[in-house]
Amino acid sequence: MNALGLSMIMKMGCICTRESININGTKYVVNERLGEGGFSCVDLVENTTTKKKYALKRILCHSIEDQKRAMQEITYCKKLRHPNIIELIDSTFKGSADIVVQATSEAFLVLPYYRRGTLHDYLALRSFSKKYMDIKDVLRIFCDISKALKYLHDFTPDPVAHRDLKVANVCLTENMDPILMDLGSCAPATVQICGAQDAQKLQDIAAETCSMTYRAPELFHVESYCIIDQRTDIWSLGCVLYAMLYFKSPYDVVYERGDSVNLAVISGTVHFPEETPYNEDIHDLIKLMLKVSPSERPFIDKILERTEELKNKYDNVV
């Protein structure tokens, strides 16, 4: 057999052996791996009937507790409906988690596929040539992210905090509209901490689920008696806006230098580049969100009000 024939057979073999997954009667084939995290992975899949592509999030559960967390993510995905929050197409569990026999289960979430990828991907591409975003585009996208956050924070009967807002958790549509995703870290917005045990538990959860360079100061060292609320997301939102201007969170730079992110966050130190195409007013908005004390940090309505003011100002600039 010649090399061409062998190559053709190998290619056909690859196509024939692609993994297929049945979710509630709908068959999908896996095309490629899009990304992996500590607790899950995302595959690009194709509906075998419609040929439409989707993102399939797979969460491996090693315990009943893992399974509860995955079910919680599915629950949040089902009940949170907003144009700028990711839609859940379908979901299921396969297998069963049993801590006694060490069995595992897997949660499958069928989600829309966004060809542009995430805001993180988009900013990474622009950073190579230091191609700053136009301020009007920054404010439009940021305003829509803030509206999604307002929907969470105002949700009834129980307000919700995202708890892991970052540019990697914002997808972009073909029209460059932001879609907030990864609701696995979502939690009740207000948490009352009564004692050292409660404080340590929340601190451990934050260390596990909240990205360090976007994590609010009060989640690094949770006080024994305090109330944590949705203003943890406002801090993260400030880091997102900074990244939209300068490609990375202000604390990504600290991390890359090998310095302590913890100390930098708690000190409230934020450095802006000396050479910048942006005016001081957008820096002031970031500073407003990056207040170390959560009591000094505004709620989302104030951020939206300031953002709309800036949008109106720049929309009138030719």
TrEMBL record:
Q: Which UniProt keywords apply?
A: ATP-binding, Kinase, Nucleotide-binding, Serine/threonine-protein kinase, Transferase
In terms of CDD domains, this protein maps to: STKc_16
Instruction: Please write the reaction equations for the catalytic activity of this protein.
Output: L-seryl-[protein] + ATP = O-phospho-L-seryl-[protein] + ADP + H(+); L-threonyl-[protein] + ATP = O-phospho-L-threonyl-[protein] + ADP + H(+)
What one GO molecular function would you report for this record?
Answer: protein serine/threonine kinase activity
What SMART domains does the record tag this protein with? S_TKc (SM00220)
Q: Which residues does the UniProt record annotate as the domain Protein kinase?
A: 28-310
Which EC number applies? 2.7.11.1
An annotated GO cellular component of this protein is: Golgi apparatus
Q: Does the keyword Nucleotide-binding apply?
A: yes
| Entry-linked Pfam families | Pkinase (PF00069)
Q: Which domain of life is it from?
A: Eukaryota
Q: Which InterPro entries match?
A: Kinase-like_dom_sf, Prot_kinase_dom, Ser/Thr-specific_kinases, Ser/Thr_kinase_AS
> Is the keyword rRNA-binding assigned to this protein?
no
Stored SUPFAM superfamilies: Protein kinase-like (PK-like)
Protein name, UniProt field: non-specific serine/threonine protein kinase
Native source organism of the sequence: Brassicogethes aeneus
